[in-house]
Amino acid sequence: MIKVFVYGSFMTNGRYHQYCFQGKTFLGKGCIEGYAKYILGGIHGILPEPGESVQGEVYEIDQPTLARLDFLMNNGPAFTRSMVDVELENGETLQAEVYIWNGSV
């Protein structure tokens, strides 16, 4: 199984949450350090930014769900999927995939 950190419209009550994460294992709310979240023309994206952090949620997903996320996030041209350290609310740290915006602000 694959762990993924999501933010914006993929989080609970977000536009794409049901489509991607219904029935998937929720591992908890978490935070990634060294990134800032921006709204880019209605799309949420994160960029490296020292001293900043992004709040989100972590899910355990299968390969077909990861492929669906890659498609929705336009993995490659618009976003790059990368591995990051996520600190969960309970203090546990784990590694998860996250989508990072390829553009600039």
TrEMBL record:
Q: Give TM regions.
A: none
Which InterPro entries does the entry link to? Answer: AIG2-like_dom, GGCT-like, GGCT-like_sf
Outline the extent of the Gamma-glutamylcyclotransferase AIG2-like domain.
4-103
- One of the Pfam families matching this protein, by short name: GGACT
Q: Which CDD domains match?
A: GGCT_like
The protein's name: Gamma-glutamylcyclotransferase AIG2-like domain-containing protein
From which source organism is this entry?
Answer: hydrocarbon metagenome
